[in-house]
Amino acid sequence: MGNPESVVSRSDDSRAELASVLERARAGSDLAFEAVFRELSPAVAGYLRLNGAAEVDELTNEVFAQVHRGLPRFSGDWGGFRSWVFTIAHHRMVDEVRRARRRPLVAMSDVAEEASTGDVESEALDALSDERLQRLLATLSDDQRRVLLLRVVADLPLEEAAVTLGKTVGAVKSLQHRALASLRRALEQEEVGHGS
Known about the structure:
Blueprint: H1 14-26, H2 30-50, H3 56-70, H4 78-102, H5 108-115, H6 120-137, H7 142-152, H8 158-165, H9 169-195
Helix pairs in contact: 1-2, 2-3, 2-4, 3-4, 4-8, 7-8, 7-9, 8-9
């Protein structure tokens, strides 16, 4: 199977393997930290992107730089670690939103031209699905969107999502319920609009 620090499996015993990788990362193993990054960075980037962060890759790297600096002081299991990482991501995202309000806007057409990779069809399909998802998420309040993304994209349990957002478990349950109901209504309206 190769170097155990370079592979993070998703089998039933993956939680034990992740805990082992986390311990090696805490002890200073760069390879183990890379494995932690590969395991969590896609979900962190998704959480940031779906919350409207402008520079997702840059912000994701900042989150993991902060995680790396704080890792020796972290104590807890993999679930607690995952929650801690998303707490950092959430705080960085909130800081970024505040900074963005003070910055001048850049023309989106300039950014889109610079970001083009050449696969127009793939980029168009990605843009359509992202646009639809962003449109649906825009129907939610900020708290509803954050709860839903922490629960679905970050895959955090209720308790950890509550800690990340500084809310009670009951409040997170209620926000999630209302978010799902809002999304259901938005999807039903979308279907009615396309069916006419």
